[in-house]
Each structure stands twice: as structure tokens, then as C-alpha cells.
């Protein structure tokens, strides 16, 4: 199998894109760096320049940084164990104090430049409200599958008190087109005052966003990116934390990037200028290192643009893109830069007041009360169905559980992960009390479990025009992020209301939204019922001018609407409708779509042949965003065909191949037992053969049309009669 394309960090791509789209970021960058150098110089001359520095906040000669890990999960392996997080913190503390086991691998020339940063990361012990925490916050959020800055802004603890780390299942950076199969280890948008990352000083986007399997070296990190043996010794965390402390990549060179040169510097009248990574003692390099070449073996710049220009590339620097297994050093000048950061922008983190406020000065063992949390394998069952509950309580370890299941059997449990049967139609609450020696916590999820009767009461034809302005309380809306399916009164096919999904703004690309309807009983229809709905949708055209190259890129985006059916009380789902490029009802547009008249709507008709006899049928409208446009739905209708044309179409008669050379096959479907007659006629109406005459059962059928039945090449007719509805199909026979 092909290995995924792994990007241990994605900041370089983000910087390049932001500089292309906002060239003024380049000017801001130069001004920012000039100011930073002035502060650095002032600090060298007078280390006490910044009066609020508390010299007594060093602990054992180190600055302590309180850290919180926000584990964003959907209950899979990405809900990483506390031991894995503790391992990550321990490994960072080795790298940041040059106590890592692989310092011997630093190239001889660079050994004297290798620095201990004298920083110790500690998991926070008090949360923003002053409550006991083990420094790990766990959040159920499907956004973890396409994590962007949204998971940071939604869960941030004060950036001035904590280094926020967000561990996720998959990173999909905002506004980027990630190549298929590409994986990103992590990213961190520098310090909030540094605009190069394009987060515009948004302190809610401060911190480190990292894949769960790049955290530490054990647990899921033993199998980073699904590649056994790719274990990177926690170097993604070490690297991203370097960005958090305002370090750039060793190969970063904004001057050259803006002017089209490489990282070796730019020739102007025979002189090379290069700002590189703004760090003197890291040699300038042309490109990022990939893989793990031998130290001292790569030299991508041989120009004397700095005192270190002729030296080999420092592939072992933590801020390169080399594999984590061959990274092992920061340098003295990198330490000077982060010291500037820690005495200015990040000074509050390690102030004595903050170390007390976050509880990290106390290192004695502490047991917090648990935070109750749980999940379940399903929320929809039929009478007699079971639900398996999983304890997700966190913070202090739980040692006793008290569950309450309204409407369930058992109605209570002290097991950690109980399974419960629901026998009676209804909507029920679930409560968990998690307990340990320090205390307890109670969580109730209201109206969580929806139990429907095996034979649903809702029977016969159904019509939903959303004119009540509300969605039925029996429907379930699922939203991965951004906007969700909702009823609006600003647009409609008929009346004044319809269902809409605002996808033009707010939904992350590749996120999904879905809607599950109530259950329907389809047994009472006299013929094959159909699901019909009106829809209006436009694709999105994006035209972006690249100011650096002058090239205009046009990209079209079509989202995907699917409809699924379940007759197993939501346990299995079968697709019955699937459109993306054929979904639009109007031409592509660059703006948010809203239908202006009825011609911009289309009726969709889906046959429910296979579900005709089912007494409990639910529909799921599933929308997967491709970064496209808005969707509108109105007039959802379930009914039998009423016109003869609709009835004939419901049989789905098909003869293949046609033209016929050898034998052909006649296909059709029936919703119930039917009398069927199939006859073959020639062009003047003479009956040539009685292909079938008799009774068929409910389902799909096929009959052979043998080539021996035809006299010669030419036009023939097949007359098919089902339940007194007759249709004639023309076929051509070519010998
Ligand atoms: Ca450098
Ligand atoms: Ca060189
Ligand atoms: Ca309506
Ligand atoms: Ca959404
Ligand atoms: Zn990076």
C-alpha cells in the first residue's frame, strides 16, 4: 500500500498561502522583526528592562509553563490516555533542556551551539475557574475529524495563563486544498502579536494543534499516521511548541519567498541578502530537509551570506522538516529569541502569580473529583432494541458509577459500561453519576434515547412543507461544525418556509450535516410509494487572483447530497439518492445562493420499491460540504404514484441491451404480487412470442428475450402488462 504523504508541520504552506493572498503581511513581518530585534538588543544591554519580570519565578533555574491538553474526540483511539499525554510532556521537557537521549547525534560542528532552553512544561492543576484539573480537558466534537482553528476557538482556556494544546484526529487547515492522502502532524500560529500566520492576533487561536498520534511516544503515537515505525519521538510536539514560542522554520526566508529566491538569500548587485529564520547560528538553507539524511551530509547553500553560509544544513534542528527521529537540537540564538518572547508576549505564563493560579508550583500527588461523561452506540432503537453505554468520565479517575436509565431495563446500573434494553416506545433521559474518593459529578442527557414502535403509527401519505416554522421534534439534526439544517422563513417553494443548510459561510470543507426523519409505516400503500422533495442548490465558483504570479485560478465546488433509508430502526442505512455535480438547479455562482423564483427549484422523485412492505422506515438527508453553496429543501412527500405515468415509471422497466444482437433481458420491479404478461410483436403488430404470462412476487424480476424469437434484423415491440397497466417498449434487433 502507498504510504500517506506526511507533513509533520503545515505552517510553511500556511505562511506561503497567506503571503500570496495578503502581501501586506510581508511588510508587517519586516516591521515586527525589526521591533523584536530592538527589544532583543535592549534586553542584552539591560536584562531588567521589562520591569514586571519576576526573577523569583524560576524554579530550579527553569521557567515553568502551565499546559492544558484539550483532547477533541469522537470516542475512538483519538481520545488518548492520560499516560500518553504525560509521556509527551516528559519528552518535551527532555528536548527543551537538552536532556534528550540522542544529543550525541548532533553534528560535531554544531555541538557547541546546542542549547538548553531551561523550560519546564507542567500540566495545569487548576482550571480557569480555580477547580481541580489534571490538565486534560476532554471534548466530544466531530470537528476533530476535520480540525481547523475552530476547535481551538471553541475550547480555549485563557492564553495568558495556559499553553493550550489541542489534540485531534485529523487536521484540515482552513482555506487550504490538502492533497488527497496528505496528513498533517501539527501546526501552531506563533505568538498572537506575530501576524505572519494570518490569525490576525486572535488569541483564541493561540496554542498548538496536533494529531493525537503525534503526542508522546506511546499509545497511538507508536503508530503515527498509521505508519508503524514512523514514531517520531514526540518531535512534532517539540517542533510545534517551538512555533508557540515564536521560532520559525530553519528554512524560512520571507525576503526570498516574496522576491522569488530560495532560502540561501537573494542576489542584489552581487550581494546576498537573507533574513532566513531570523536566527544567526542556524546555517541558511535552500529548502526544508525531508526524511533523515546523515548529519553534515547535506549542504543546500554554499554561499557566504552569513558567518555560517558555507556550513552543512542543520538537519538535526527541531525546527526543520526532517523526520523527528533525526532531530535533536535547538541553538543558542534560538534560545535568545525565545527568551525575548518569554520576557514579553509570553511573560504572564511563567509569572509567579500565574504559577499559583494554575496550581503548578505544587507537585504533590492530587486526585480531582471526576467529570462525568459518557457515550452510546446509538440513540434510535425500535422496541426491544439495546443501547450500549460507554463511560467517558475524566479528570480524576472514577471508581464507582451510578447510572439511571428512564424507560430502560435495567433502570439503573453500577457497571462502568452497561448495556440497556428499551421495550416501550418513547423518548428517554440517561443520567450518570461518576464517583471517587474526592467527590462526584452528575451528567444527565435529556431526551437522548428515541424508541419507536416496530409498527410505526405514522402510516399512509405524508407531507411536510415546514409551514409551522419548526422541524418535528421527532427529527434529529446532526451538525459536525458551523451551520446546521434548520427551517427558515426567508425562502420557500410553497408557503413561506423551507428547510435550509447555510453552507456558503460557516461550514468547514469536508464536514458533514445530516437530518434523520421520524419513522414511517409504508405497509398500507396500495402501490410502490415514492419519496419526493423539492430542492434548490447552486455550485460555487471561486475565482482567485494570485497577486504574486498574476495568475487567476478558477475552481468549481459541488457539495454532495445523499438520502439514505433505514428499516432497521437506524442501525443500517441504504443509499437511495446521491447527487453532487448534478445537484445544482441553477448555474454556478460566486456568491451565496438563494433561489429567487420557482424555476430555480427541482422536484426529486425516489422510488421506495425495496421498502414497500416495511413498517418502520426512516430517512436520512446527508450533506457533505465541498466548500460549495447553500441547499434548500421543501415539500417532503411520501405517497404512492397517482398518475398513470408515475405508476408505469414505478415499475422501472428496462430492456438491455438494446439494440439486441444475441439474447437480451427484460428487468422490472413490483411492490407486491402482480399478474404480469410479456409479449413480443413485430413491426406490423403480429404476436411473435408469449414471453411470460403469470404471477410474480414482490421484488425485482428479469426475463430472457431469446434471439431465436426474432425473424430478422429490424424494429420489434415488447408489450408488458402489470396489474392492468400496459406499456410498450420498442427494441431493435441487429443480427
Ligand atoms: Ca539562520
Ligand atoms: Ca551551507
Ligand atoms: Ca414550505
Ligand atoms: Ca454544519
Ligand atoms: Zn513547523
| Total number of helices | 9
Amino-to-carboxy terminus distance? 47 Å
CATH-defined superfamily of the largest domain: Collagenase (Catalytic Domain)
The distinct bound ligands, ions and cofactors come out as:
calcium ion, zinc ion
Structural class: alpha+beta
How many structural domains can be distinguished in the coordinates?
4
The CATH topology of the largest domain corresponds to Collagenase (Catalytic Domain)
Radius of gyration: 33 Å
Structure, briefly:
The protein is an alpha+beta fold. It is 13% helix and 31% strand. The two termini are 47 Å apart.
Task: Give a verbal description of the structure.
This protein has 9 helices and 40 strands. By secondary structure, the chain is an alpha+beta fold. It has 4 domains: 5-40 and 59-102 and 110-248 and 329-357, Collagenase (Catalytic Domain), CATH 3.40.390.10; 375-452, Sandwich (Immunoglobulin-like), CATH 2.60.40; 462-641, Jelly Rolls (Sandwich); 651-733, Sandwich (Immunoglobulin-like). Strands 1, 2, 3, 4, 5, 6 and 7 form a 7-stranded mixed beta sheet that branches. Strands 21, 23, 24, 26, 31 and 33 form a 6-stranded antiparallel beta sheet that branches. Strand 39 and strand 40 form a beta hairpin. The longest helix has 22 residues, at 24-45. The protein is globular. It starts with a strand and ends with a strand. One calcium ion (CA) is lined by residues 479-484, 507, 511, 513.
Task: Name a few traits of the molecule.
Jelly Rolls, binds calcium ion, Collagenase (Catalytic Domain), 4 domains, single chain, 9 helices, alpha+beta, seven-stranded mixed sheet, 13% helix, 735 residues, six-stranded antiparallel sheet, Immunoglobulin-like, binds zinc ion
